[in-house]
Design goal:
By secondary structure, this protein is an alpha/beta fold. The protein folds into two domains: about 180 residues, YjeF N-terminal domain (Rossmann fold); about 270 residues, UDP-N-acetylmuramoyl-L-alanine:D-glutamate ligase (3-Layer(aba) Sandwich). The chain has 15 helices and 18 strands. The chain has an eleven-stranded mixed beta sheet with strand order 1-8-17-16-15-14-13-12-9-10-11. Helix 3 links the parallel strand 2 and strand 3. Helix 2 packs across helix 3, helix 6 crosses helix 15 and helix 7 crosses helix 13. The C terminus is likely disordered.
Length: about 475
Amino acid sequence: MIPIVTPAEMRAIDSAAPYPVEVLIERAGAATAFAALRVLGSGYGKRVVVLAGKGNNGNDGRSAARRLAARGVRVAMIAPGDSLPSGPVPDLVIDSAFGTGFRGTWSPPRVGAVPVLAVDIPSGVDGLTGNAEPAGALEAMATVTFAALKPGLVLLPGRTLCGRVTIAQIGLDCSSARAWQVEGPDVASWVPPRPVDSHKWRHACWVVAGSPTMPGASYLCVKAAMRAGCGYVRLSSPGVERSIGAPTESVYHPLPGAAWADGLSADVTRFASMVIGPGLGRSEDGDAEIRRAVAASPLPLVLDGDGLSALGEQAPVVLQHRSAGTVLTPHDGEFERLTGHRAGLDRFAAVRDLAAACRSVVLLKGPTTVVADPQGRVGVSVSGDDRLATAGSGDVLAGIIGALLAQGLDPWRAALAGAELHGRAARRGPVRGLVAGDLVDLLPQVWDDIAQPCGPTDARTLVGP
């Protein structure tokens, strides 16, 4: 996984470094110059404008300028607030105006079609939240950052302003990081291989989902669980005697319309995980049954959709005595129902707080999916895109996570791996017209993708459109 540190954590890491700040600046300058030459190709005779502020971010830019000049690049220096020099259009602008310490607002120079290389983070982007004022950030085609990613590089809108991001290692120890970006090889390493004597009950999941008016949510969840590795999936839709449209491979188990939580004790010890919520519908009695089922279930559990709404702000009380792991999968609206407020700009902090309050893993859906456990460990997945903004995609995600829990992953890894697989499935689909069922059908290809070994690279491309 790729470490992510906040600006404050980065300052502490800088302070603890065994090298003088001047050495770190020269290393950062060398990495910036190298990144610039990758954009320029042959540097000799090219024109570069370096936008350099007063702090160490500006010093990184000045160090890069000296190195580029030594390679025959025609370098011009400007300060924040200055316009580009008159004369020939430059081949590149290096943005080292503010870095992650930016506060307030500024008016970046107009660069037109000139490519911009950002140093550490595009100036005008908040390093903690990714927030940026409209027209108040200098959009980069590439960013070179140091030692670790920053939240502002993975959260919107910063993620869309940084272009292609590479990490330069300059001798800083980021082992204290409490947040990481997941990659495909991480997921592949977490999911255990099937034993040669495996059988269908070894990875069994019970899905309690669907209703007479929303049966499709349960079908998507069940199919996703099977494609994600379950050998056996039981489906129950309270009050529905028979589910004619359920996936052929699933096993239907009817539950009564009232007091259905009592029926979840049947053969429960044969299952390794449970999913509750997709498409169950809302009613006062139904919500009470969901709360009762969640509190009593001895299995690792994914709670999604109507299951989350049924808990609402009672979630910490309902979940506090659960003996097995729990994964909550809210979108922003459901997060507000669970907490009484919006997630806010600092999504890492918001998810950490809810995870601690509920003693559960929380997966906050969005363009960047953020996952936290009760101890404050955070993981992010940036694999998804706008193709996931389609009805039923959350039901698919719930089924994937349920399957990963059934295969023995701890709740944090199951949620984070599920988000990564889910997003990668979307990226394998059509640019337009993808529906949730397509995600299920694409999952086997995604499993094949992440199983492929990755060759060495000279610079790791970590984030990018």
